[in-house]
Amino acid sequence: MGFVLGVIQGMLLKIVPFLITLHLQPIAMANPSAMMLLPDHYSLISRQQMKIQFRLYLLGLLSIVGSLCFPQLTVSLGLMMLLNWLWIGYNIASASITYRNVRQEMMAS
What we know:
The protein is mainly alpha-helical. Helices cover 83% and strands 0% of the residues. It contains 4 helices and no strands. It has helices spanning 2-30, 41-44, 47-69, 74-108. The protein is elongated.
């Protein structure tokens, strides 16, 4: 769970901004004045958001170890997994909203 979950979440945090930029590039190429509106990857999902995601991931791993030693902590494992996936969902949703807003601005210009 530690390796696979980390790989999946890390890939999501890198692939989503790449795909957003990839889909906005044809609009920017058709209208060079819209090129300035093209966001960079870290404005879509910031490094601070990624650090929070990583800390939640580490807390999840610690919860796994803790629940092995103390079965009463199994509830904390579920809570950490929930918070972890809610945060990644928030990151992807905020990047999607930024994509929609930037796309509308690019189409308007």
